[in-house]
Amino acid sequence: MDKKVRVRFAPSPTGGLHIGGVRTALYNYLIAKKNNGTMILRIEDTDQTRYVEGAEEYIKEALAWVGIQLDESPWQGGKFAPYRQSERKDLYKKYALKLIEEGNAYYAFDTEDEWDSKRKELEAAGVVSPQYNSITRMQMKNSLTLTAAEVKAKLAAGEPYTIRLKVPHKEDIRVHDLIRGWVVFHSSLLDDRVLLKSDGMPTYHLANVVDDYLMQISHVIRGEEWLPSAPVHVLLYKMLGWENEMPQFLHLPLIMNPDGNGKLSKRYADQLGFPVFPIEWHNKEKQATMTGYREAGYFPETMVNFLVLLGWNAGTEQEIFSMQELIDSFSIERIGKSGTKFDINKAKWFNQHYLKATSNPTLARLLLADLAKNNRTLSQEKAEKVVEILKERVTFVKDFLTEGKYLFDAPQTFDEQIASKKWNQPLVEVLNGYKNALQTHQESLEAHTAKEILNKTTDSLGVKFGSVMQGVRLAITGAGAGADLMEIIAFLGADEVSKRIDYAVSTLKVVS
RNA sequence: GCACAGUUCGUCUAGGGGUUAGGACGUAUCCCUUUCACGGAUAAGACACGGGUUCGAUUCCCGUACCGUGUACCA
C-alpha cells in the first residue's frame, strides 16, 4: 500500500496527440504530483507501420505547452531506460517464451491470410465475431495442433510465427478498477490475443504489461476504451507471476462529441469549428495543417482548467484552478464514471477568464506579436492602451485586432442600419463643430477632455448629448457599438478624429 | 449480435432514503452605461422508464430503454 506512486503516459507516435490524450496525461500528472510520485512518458511505437515522423517531438512540445513536466522519458532518460518500446524489443520475446514454456501461450504459424479465410468461413457459418480462441485454435496451425517435431522444424526453417496467449476455457477474470470497482469478464469471451507479432514486435498487451511491471508502475491511468482488454492484462500479470505487483487500474471516462455521438473525433470537431489538437499538427502525408488550441488563441491555463473538469470536480463550487491548486486538490475518488461531452463554449469562458487575469503589459506584448505577424507595429505604451480599452470585450488575444480594428484603421464603410437612422443634419453640425473645437487639442487629448469638448459642442448647438452619441461613434469607428468612445477618441488623437469626421461627412448622406 | 461500462437542467456537474434537488457555461429579462461588452440581479431549465424494498425512492435492488466503448499480427 505504501508503494511509491509511479504513473506513465504512454502515447503512440502515430500523429498529433488528441486532446483526450492530453487530459489522460494531465490526470496522470496530477496523481503523480499529488502523491509525490513520478511521472513517466513511454513511447509505444510497437506498430512500425503506423509510425509517423515528428509525432514524438509533437508529444513532447504539446505536454510542455500545457505545463506537464516529465520525470522520466525517452528525451531525458531515467533509471528504467529505454523508454521507447521499439528499443526494448528483445525484452518482450523473453517473456513470451516464458509463457510458452509454462503452457500459457503458444506458437501460431497461420499467416494473416489463413486466419482471414478461416474468419470468413466462420462468418459464413453464422458466427458474428469469429475469434481465435479455445475452440478455433484447435483447427489452426499452431504448437497446440502440430507435433513438437513439426514445430521445431518450422522454427528452424525460419517460418514466420506469432505467439498467442492461451486463454483459459472457463474462468471469471476479475479486474479491479479504482473508478468503477470490480468488473468481471468471462474468459470464454476473450480471444487468444497475439502477444508477439510476426515481425518480432510485441503487441500493446504484452509490451504494456511487461513495461509497467519492469518500470514499477503503480497506477495505470488510461481511457475507458481499454477496459475491455483489461482482463487480458490481468491474465498476463497472473501468468507471469506478477499478480502481487499488479498496478491499480483507472479507466477514465471518455470525452465525447458535443452531441454525444461517439468519442470526440477530428471530423466532428472540424465541422463545429474547434481544434482537437493541443498545438498545430502538420500532416506531411496529406500535406495538411491541423490547427491547435495554442494557435487558436487558447492559453495553456485554459486548457488545463477546462480539461481537468471533464470528468473530475473538487466537490466544492470552485471552478477556477491553477495547476498548483489542482495538484493540491486532485483526488482519484472524485473522478467521474460517465462520458463527458465536449463543450467549446465553456473553454472560451475559461479563456476569457484567464485573459482578464493577465496583466496589461503582458497582454500588450502578445498583441504586439500578433500585430507583427501582420507587419504592423505599435509602441508598447500604445499597445497597453489598446489592451486597456478592449480587455473586457475579448476572449482571445487575437480578438484585439478584430474587435478593435477601428483603433488601427480608419473605417472605409459604415454600418448602414445605424447610418440610415442616425445620420441627420444636427449630427453633421455637431461633428463639424466638434472637429473645430478639437483643433486646440492637437498635442494631447484625454478621454475626459474629449467628452467635455463634445458636451460643449452639443450644448452650444442646442442638441442633446445622448441623441448624437451613436452617430459620432459611427463617424469615428464605422460601427454602432464598441468600446468607450471617449477612450477611443483619446487614443486616436484630434488629428485622426478630424480626418475621420471629414471622411464620414463627405461619404454619408444625410437623412431627414 | 455478444461483452463491458454509463444515465441528475441543452452542456459540465453537486447531492443523496424525507432537500424549495445546489453551482457553473449557455439562453432570456432587468439594472448599470452614450452603445456594445464587463459586472450585478432575476428567470426558464434536470433526477430515462417500469417494477420492487420502504412509512417514504431521484438516491438501494432488479429489469427495460437509450447512449458509449470493445470485439485486429492498431494502440
What does this structure look like?
The chain has 512 residues and is mainly α. The protein has 21 helices and 13 strands. The protein has helices at 19-34, 55-66, 89-101, 112-124, 148-156, 204-214, 230-239, 266-272, 293-296, 300-308, 323-329, 344-356, 360-373, 380-390, 399-403, 405-408, 416-422, 425-438, 447-461, 465-477, 485-507, and strands at residues 6-9, 38-41, 105-108, 162-165, 172-177, 181-186, 194-196, 219-223, 248-252, 255-256, 281-283, 288-290, 340-341. The strands form 6 sheets. Strands 3-4-7 form a 3-stranded antiparallel beta sheet. Strands 1-2 form a two-stranded parallel sheet. A two-stranded antiparallel ribbon has the order 5-6. It binds one RNA strand of 75 nucleotides through strand 6, strand 7, strand 13, helix 12 and helix 20.
